[in-house]
Amino acid sequence: MAELPITSSRTVSVALSDGTSYNAVDVFTRPPDQSEYVFFTEWWVPIPASPTSEHISSATTTSSSETTPTSTPTPTHASVSPTSTSNAQPIQQGSGSGLSTGVVAVIAVACVVAGFILGVIMSFLFLRRRLRALDAGHHASQRDSQEKPLQAISLTDTHIRDQYLIVPTADSKIGSELSALGQLLQQHVENNYHLQPVSRSANELSNALVHLGLGESGAIPVVELAALALDPKTRYVAIQHVIAKIAFISATFNETTTISLLPEPVSLFLSMIPKTKGRMGNPDALESALTRWRQLSAFLLHPRRGSRTALTPSEDTSTHEAERLAVALNTFLSPFVAGDREERYEQENHLREVIVECVTFDYLLFSQPSEYKFCFDSNGREMSLVVCPGLHRVSDEEGSRFPAPGELVILPVVRSI
After folding, report:
1. Residue 343 to residues 14, 195, 329, 336: CA-CA distances in angstroms?
2. Three-class SS of residue 372?
3. Strand, helix or coil at 59?
4. CB contact burial 349-376 (16+ within 10 A = b; e otherwise)
5. Tens digits of per-residue pLDDT, 130-186?
6. For the segment 211-228, what is each residue's pLDDT rounded down to a tens digit?
7. Is-contact 22 47, C-beta < 8 A?
8. How big is the chain by its Cα radius of gyration, in Å?
């Protein structure tokens, strides 16, 4: 079978400068027995020129036709004169549709702004949903707290007492502290008061004792006590008894004194308790109530509740209380202090130091879960005075009272007169 020739054609539109346009066909043909293509152009009829644009449109086709060896196409040759070609205007192929740089920039900025706005909207919706969830949880917790009220803490619950209230101090340590205070009192009296005769009368001194709160309810009448202080032989014993009695009963609930060494809120509350004749009602109930209240007060007044240690007065508090009590005591003690100014200054300073130690001990007793009571009884010994009180524990940690006089902690120190 004979090889067929290969023919390729391309249609070109040419616009000239004089406004005339032509359509032409470029034909490429390779005979079967040759390797090179033969080119010729077929001119077509002119077409009307576009008044606004110049263009070239090109179409290329390739075809294969069956010819006999004896049939050879006779091409019509045409050429474009140099003059016509030189007059052709620059031709732009294809119809361009690209966007300018400004348009692209505007589109990019619009996309960024749209993305930012979308992100803000999504963030707002997410936060609003989260806030609603938190608000719903808060209301749910409030409902739970209202539906499940806290259980009241019972002071009779041993577990609560052992876990939260102040840890009790051993009786042996309390007794040692009181004994040390007795020795300090003795040193103060022996080093700061003289044994010379004084110009005061027993009545004047007894009035001072009454104002201090001793009254006539003591083991010895105040007039007799004043006479013992005037006697140089029994002066030290009488003075030590007076200082000890005033310093320790000032920290006792059931005693009436002009100055209280208890914490100020406690003293104020005790002064507001109505006094009734013979304390009408059940005395055990009153004592038990006071014990409960004292335990909670010691816990609530403590600046470091978690330490569960005894309440201690601040330096300002102890100094202030000591100053007040020292001024009150010196209405009775001043006649027995030497007239020298320096000696009086030393006596006042040392008396304040002794009272500060007594205040610290009083706070220690106040903090204990159990109830304690000072004892100024000389155990029936005649012609004797207590110069340092004894101590009894009269109730346990739950407020249950022991049979009188209670459990002995330390015996009183008694001196003959």
Report:
1. 137, 14, 16, 11
2. strand
3. strand
4. ebbbebbbbbbbbbbbbbbbbbbbbbbb
5. 777 776 666 555 554 454 444 444 445 555 555 667 788 999 999 999 999 999 999
6. 888 875 566 889 999 999
7. yes
8. 60
